[in-house]
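Z., the sequence and structure:
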Amino acid sequence: MEKPDISAILEHYGARVPTRRGWFSMKCPFHDDTHNSASANTDEGVFCCFACQVKGDGFSLIMNKEGVQFREALSIAERILNASGKVLPQRNTRSGGIPRRTGNLSRASTSGSLGRRVRSVNGS
């Protein structure tokens, strides 16, 4: 699953988010902030407050603020994004996820997950 639009999540919690892209500083919506103590990046979909230590992507922010697990955060993110006229990006099913391993992993010609060759136990 891709990250939800961080701007919509932050605005939902009361932040004033500029329309520009990339990194910017802002007042943190998660504590009573009187000056810009937080930064967010709309391109990467991440947030970090240097005062209250709240940080992460949209899902992490929802889980922290609402005290829920990922599944509930996913539902909340969908509601927030739908209310703002945006949609939650769908995962690319062709290239996403963990690749499945096939074949005999004990053969010497089989590559491991780090590109190293795997030798059989008997040394052949």
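The chain has a mean pLDDT of 79. The beta strands are 23-26, 38-41, 46-49, 55-57.

Let me know what you think.
H.
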